[in-house]
Amino acid sequence: MAVNEVIITQAIINRFAEKLGTYTEMDAAIVGAGPSGLIAAYFLAKAGLKVAVFERDLSIGGGMWGGGMMFNEIVVQTEARQLLDMFGIGTREYQPGYYTADAVESITAICFNAMQAGAKVFNSISVEDVIIREDRVTGLVLNWSAVERTGMHVDPLSVAARYVIDATGHNTEVIKLIEEKAGIKLKTKTGKILGEGSMWAARAEQLTLENTREICPGVFVAGMAANAAFGGPRMGPIFGGMLLSGKKVAGLIIPEEQSGFDTSADDFDIWFNKNQVVFESELLAQKVFIDDPEHTVSIGCGSGIFDERLGIKSGVEPAEDMARLARKRGMTVKTGTAENIPYKDQTFNGVLLGTILSYVKDRKKAVHEAYRILKPGGHVVVSFLAREGSYALLYDLASTQGKYDPEAAPEAPYPLKFLKETHWCSVTEVTHLLKEAGFVDLKYVQTLTRHPKYSNNRIEQPKKGFDRGDYIVVQGKKP
Ligand code: 48F
Q: Is residue 196 lining ligand 1, measured as CB closer than 6 Å?
């Protein structure tokens, strides 16, 4: 077939017009196709939101392509490596806690996954203004970057968005426009952009997550823009904070009714998506004691959200909608309860009772069952919200009052509907249950040692003991 130039032209014009036309109204508009913007696009699109990314450059990727000083390798920490794993990006441990990945492989895979999930990327388009109605940003004003660069006098076009994410990196371009042109007070200490501080990788990585939030009605900051807006330092070519920031900002935006799921099984995952940092802290604490995931079974595995990251492939779960989600995550799930585990005696090297003792009817039986299916020398791992901790107290108070105290509660508190019929176990109670069933050599780690209101700001490394943490993990050995 001899191809015709005019048909090629028509195809491109029509298809692009159709694409941009579809995105004149959307749920979330992301400005900047750097790592934080593209990760946010992935999670938002996956949750079923209509999301577009507008990128000034011809190429996507922002600062990621260039690694450090154009040495195109990046470094990520343990917590963020999981995100790269999720996209099939190869990582190598350089030293404990430091992983390297190819910068080009990383950003292309992230972008590919975001687009496959349904996000659209519009490159060579700059955001030159915002639309504001009643002190809320309701849309973006776009122009070709070539127009901007050549300084031609060409009027822009506008699109509407329910949420805007400024992921423009060091320059915080969208926020600058809002500050300069609209005079909207930002949720920073001064109400203005605080500006980026000089290099301090460790602090910057922590602060990026903390600073990822809504900065004025309808507008969120992610990635380096979050630090630049809230006065955090820069971090250089370590990208963990960027990736987790993208995930966090998506979690803050995804409304429950639009998550693409409607069962309470998914609500559970949605809550963890909104509380990504809490999730990572709890996961790190569980990891301390999960030493043989391949031969461990997770009892009451729920949607498998933790097990997937722990590498546990076997689960037991009574709720079919939860089990369905866990199977989607690649687990083999048997229907059953903690009180009647459908496995023979001495089957596993490890049994995880992940935050389920608060929900099971017969805790004693559940712990005995865990003991039964363990091989001698095997370990049970129990995680729970300690009854004496502030999370449990906050939940109890909210249940009694029928609502959370907004001054005390975290930004996205646990839905009250999940708090019915819960029994928070104390450390004393869990210790007693484990010893009574025959477990020995009990070991404890704790996490979530900040007030609940602040626990989603910074990932915590687990600490030995149980005297401060709201979330406790205990390991016991079957002799
Ligand atoms: O800077 P960038 O990569 O943002 P990020 O996701 O990641 C920062 C890191 O790359 C690195 C770092 C350490 O980890 O500090 O710098 O926070 O990507 C920002 C993207 O936004 C585009 C810009 O071209 C870049 O690709 N951008 C900036 N202003 C505009 C814009 C604008 N007005 N309109 C459209 N795109």
A: no
